[in-house]
Amino acid sequence: MNTWNISVKAKLFATLALTGVVMILVGGIGLSGTRSSNADLDAIFSNRFMPTGWVGTIETHERAVLEKAEEVVIRQDGAAVKAALDLLQERQGEVKELLAKLDATELTDKERQIVEQFRANGADVLGLVQEAMLAAQSGNFSAAESTLIEKARPAYEKLNTAGDNLLKTQIEVAQVMRTEADASFKKSSAFIIGAIVVGIGLSGLLGWLIIRSIVSTLNTAVSIADRISSGELGNDVRVETSDELGRLLEGLKRMDGKLVEIVGGVRGSADAVGAAARQLSHGNDDLSQRTQEQAAALEETASSMEQMTATVKQNADNARQANQLAVGAREQAEKGGAVVQRAIAAVGEINNSSRKIADIIGVIDEIAFQTNLLALNAAVEAARAGEQGRGFAVVATEVRNLAQRSASAAKEIKGLINDSVDKVKVGSELVDESGKTLSEIMESVKKVTDIVAEIAAASEEQSAGIEQVNNAVSQMDNVTQQNAALVEEASAASKSMEQQSGTLVNQIGYFRRADGSGITGSGSHSHAAPEVVRQAQPVTRPRPQAVRKAGLASKPKAVASSPAPLARASGDDSQWSDF
Amino acid sequence: MAIDLAQFHDAFFEESFEALDSMEAALLKLNLGAPEPELIGTIFRVAHSIKGGSATFGFSEVASFTHTCETLLDELRGNRMQVTRHVTDLLLKSVDVMREMLRSVQRKEPIDAQRVADLQFDLELAIAQKNQPAAAPAPAPVVAAAPAPAAVEAAKPRVAHRWRISFRPYPQLFVHGNDPLRMIRELSEIGELSVKLDGNALPSLEALEPESCYLAWDLTLDTDAAREVVNGVFDWAEGDCDLQITEEEVPVQAAAPVAATAAPASEAKPSNVVNIADAKPAEAPKEAPHPAAAAAVHEGPKAGATDGGSIRVSTEKIDELMNTVGELVITQSMLTQLGSKFTGHAAEQLRSGLATLERNVRELQESVMRVRMLPISFVFSRFPRMVRDLSGRLGKHVELKMTGDQTELDKTVMEKIGDPLVHLVRNSVDHGIEMPDVRSAAGKPQTGTVFLNAYHKGGAITVEVGDDGGGLNKDRILKKARERNLIGPNETLSDDQIYELIFMAGFSTAEQTTDISGRGVGMDVVRRNIKELGGTIEVRSEYGKGSRFIITLPLTLAIVDGQSVAVGTETYIVPLITIIESLQLKQGMVNRVAGSGEVFWFRDGYVPVVRLHEVFGVEPRTTQLHEGLIMVVEGEGRKVGLFVDDLLGQQQVVIKSLETNFRRVDGVSGATILGDGAVALILDVPGLIRVATQRLAA
Amino acid sequence: MTNQVAAQIDAAAAGSNQMLTFTLGEETYGVDILRVQEIRGWQPVTRIPQAPSHVLGVLNLRGSIVPIVDLRMRFNLQHAEYTPLTVIIVLTVQSATGRRDFGVVVDGVSDVIDVAASDVKPAPEFGAHVSTEFIEGLASVSGRMVMLLDIDQLIGADVTGVALSPAA
């Protein structure tokens, strides 16, 4: 078997190489036979066939020139001499060329002799014609004629004969050559057949050996794969070769091992998912409970808000009433103020009158003063008048007394008036003060009215605010309902997930060990998860109890009692919005 | 009539005593042997006035005695008697006696008749002894003392009389202050008068003596009046005329003794006595009788009680009247102010009434003011005689031309302008007019002309005294001034400054002093007098052609045209005549000059600023020069810018003296009473400038 | 002036003399009634430059310009306000330069009294602000003491300025 440790690729490559060598050998032999026959054919064509053509052509040219010259001589046309000479010249060149070609061919000695004969004869013909033509040119036609007939014609006859000899020789040579070719063909054919037979034999042997080694290994691989597909894992795979097939077996072995590992992992995970789904389901139940509790609380809030609205409305009414009362008080105070104003005006008039009286008294005083002065002047005049003025002086004194009395009376009145003016002033000050106080009261009342009005306005605003709060609460209720529905959905989803995880575990159970034992989940956490779930459950237990106690309203009970589908929840929604 | 006349007794006595005082003074001044005719004239006038007055008022003893004195004086005046100590003693005694008599009459006490008679006898004796050729003086007093009884005796008929009066004045009639026209007018008031003028004695115009009377009248008077009344008309002409009064066909030769007595006097040539009071405007004895009132004021005794057209009123009374009118004006303007406050229909009437009142009051004020005004002819009238005398004595031919002698001016001004004018006229005749041969040589007419011209110009009167003589010789004045060290030897002076020199005290260029002029006491006195009156004098002269003195005087001393200005709360009056221009200074126009205060550029020189509020120590409205006003005023040739708060208005104000009850105040010429009754001070611009300058110097 | 005084004394000796009394502060003064021209109320005056401080100014008295003297100032008393009730007494003085009128501002006019010559006693030396040279005598009238003023002495020099202003 060791000899077969060579890779499959190398084995195939060696077989194919042997077959190739045989083929090359056979082809080479055939090719050389073909090439020699072709060479023969070529020799026949160029050395035998072609020269025959060239010989005929030379003869034709020679005769054309001869005939031309003869024509000239016959006609004795001096003018044509020239033409004849030209033709001679032309044909002479062509003949030379052909002769050169003929010289280049493989000729046998015999042939060479004949060709030399031929060449000489041709040159003679042409020389003689030229001689004749030169004579004709000089007018000596007769000489020319004689030359032609007597000498040229015979030369030409000789040429003709030489030519014929050459042709005959040629054909003879070609005959010989054909016979030689037949013989070589027969030899090579025999060799080729022998080579082919040897090659086929070798190839067949090699192929059989190779096929045999490959098929046995592949069969082993197939059997392993079949076992895996049937869920049988952990197969014993022996690998004996290190070629490609050996590596195939190696790979199958690794696949088997890996699958055993993976199935174990999946099994563990499925167990964990199952545990988590259970937990989730429990959580959702809990959430549902709490949502119901929230809804109940919201209901309570709404009823409280209603009560508050009523209180605020009453408050606003009270404020309005207070405002009306304050306005009334203000009007009263204004009336009082007007009365005080009138009082002030009256006092002012009294004051004015007093002042006028005082002015008048001042005038009286002034008049008294003037009278006094006048009387004094009168007294002076009286004194000047001497004895005659005595009586007048007495009168003047009387007038002065009167003036002084009126002055003092005026002073008294002035004092009284001033006194009354003072008193009036005090009175008017008091009135002014009371007016001021009244206006202050008015001011205060005005302020109170303003404040009360503000309170009323604030109450209005407050009730509007409560309305808004109400709206917000009902909106919150709606949202809570929706939340409950969503929680139920989530609960259902977690249940289905639990189921699915059970299914997964069952399906994973398909895989078993080749030794007959089952594959368990890998890692310790697959055991821990159920622990958690079990611990959480006692904590959540009392909750539903509390919820049930708190839920006063009957309607949410339906929602809370059973996880309603979404359609049901939305049906309840309309009922909630009525609240 | 007697009651009426008694009103004037006081005035008469007062004037008489004053006159006697001046007579006494004149007598004392009288040089024995060479009596100044002016003094004798003064003395004579006094006696004449007292005689006339006492006769008018019926103090016959006084009149009689005075007449004797007058006779003696007339002799003296006519150089028919020598002035001896005896005579002057007698006359002085006479003054005492006259004073005594008048006092007795005034006190209504008996006259010491014995003493009077003794002295009268002595006087008559003196006349008789010293003046042999003269007619016996004795009859005169008889005629004077009691012409009436004789006449009454002669013409007793009770029916209407037809008096035929032949009135032939002697040439000197005017000289004695008699006015034929007045007499004729008086006669025409007594009855129906027909007048026939006898102009035969009129000489040709060249020979006509302007001061002589050439005319005679034949008058026929149909009247109930007795002869004594007719005679009384001619009382004052006795001795100066031939007077015949006859009744019907019976000619009465009552005036014969008078004629005889007066005859010698008429023969006397007009002496060189310059008799101002009696002189008459020469040109127009007929056409231009004096306004009666003016004459009455000025020459009361002459007019006499018989002149019903005028009365003698003392200036005091006129002043009182003016005061009262002034008060009236104030009251009126007060009422006008008050009236503008009323409204309504009645107010319109009130206002038109007030407007009428205002017009009337103004007219009244002007009338009263005019009462004080006299034509300047009273001054001019003395010049013809004076010029004639002077030219005669100097041997020059001089003609006097006077124009505008009816121009009126205040009596107080007139009293003071006489002497300066006399000086100027004298100077013109003495120095101005050349000797006839000199004049001929200079191609001028031999007779030189001295002219006097008076006219009103802008609230002032301008009097020009000029001549066509040689003019002022500047070189000589300069030379003289240098001799007397009045100016430095190399000082050059403008024409005006040179002319200024002649007004300096003690300056005369006359080569020899004459008794007429050239003693160098003329021109400075002239200028001082004029300045005292608030006037100015100015000289224009052209050498070889003559010179002219132009005197500008206020029309009156009682009124001034003033510009009221305000400084703080006070109002002051600036005489318009001193104001050159009022302007407002802009900031930066005033320069401060060390030692001379603030000055600003005005016209062609720097003018110092005088802050009135500083000078008078009042609180001004502003001390910023550009906020108030500057009033450029001129006094004594110096200009200052008076800084005041504001200009108020121009008005004529009555000048009241502060000195009457208070005293003179520097920079203040007097006070006046404004429309609201308040007192405003009138600025004395030259005095103010002096005060301000002293303040600056101090 | 001595004549005047003599005449007054004569008059006083002849019988009774009338006096116009006025008050100035606490004191009562008297002037011969014949010297009184007029009594009138206060009126603003026009100031006079360069005048003594007690010469308040001048006033228009019926067309004549009359200087006004504040007697309080003259006697160096405290200055009092001028009111419409302040009184001006227009007096006549005989000065070296003649008769003059002037007004004095006093607090008030009291009375016209008859003073018998026997009631007038010579003035003793005063410790008061009024030097005796202006006091002619003292009179006691119904229990009140009246100082009789010699206004010629008191005012004459002031208003004429003889002693004060050499220019006059």
Determine the structural class of chain A based on helices, strands and strand pairing. mainly alpha
CATH fourth-tier homologous superfamily of the largest domain in chain B: Histidine kinase-like ATPase, C-terminal domain
Number of DSSP E strands of chain B:
23
Second-tier CATH architecture of the largest domain in chain A: Orthogonal Bundle
Strand order of the largest sheet of chain B: 15-19-20-18-17-16
Spans of at least 5 consecutive residues with low confidence of chain B: 131-159, 250-307, 511-521
What is the number of E strands of chain A? 2
CATH class category of the largest domain in chain A? Mainly Alpha
CATH architecture label name of the largest domain in chain B: 2-Layer Sandwich
Structural class of chain B: alpha+beta
The total of helices of chain A stands at 10
Rg of chain B, please?
Answer: 30 Å
Outline the biggest β-sheet of chain B. 6 strands, mixed
Strand content of chain A is under 5%
Description:
The complex is a heterotrimer of chains A (579), B (698) and C (168). Chain A is mainly alpha-helical and 579 residues long. Chain A has helices at residues 8-75, 78-104, 109-137, 141-229, 244-385, 390-508, 525-540, 542-550, 555-561, 566-578; strands at residues 232-233, 512-513. Chain A has two domains: 2-196, Four Helix Bundle (Hemerythrin (Met), subunit A) (Up-down Bundle), CATH 1.20.120.30; 247-578, Helix Hairpins. A two-stranded parallel ribbon of chain A has the order 1-2. Chain B has 23 helices and 23 strands. By secondary structure, chain C is of the alpha+beta class. Chain C has one domain: CheA-289, Domain 4 (OB fold (Dihydrolipoamide Acetyltransferase, E2P), Beta Barrel). Chain C contains three helices and eleven strands, in the order αβββββαββββββα. In chain C, the strands form two sheets. Chain C has a six-stranded mixed β-sheet with strand order 8-1-2-11-10-9. In chain C, strands 3-6-7-5-4 form a five-stranded mixed β-sheet. Residues 1-15 and 162-168 of chain C have low confidence and may be disordered. Chain B binds chain C through residues 320, 322-324, 326-327, 570-571, 615-618, 656-668, 671, 673, 677-681, and chain C through 44-51, 55, 57-60, 62-67, 100-102, 159-162, 165, 167-168. Chain C: It is found in: Cytoplasm. Chain C: Keywords: Cytoplasm.
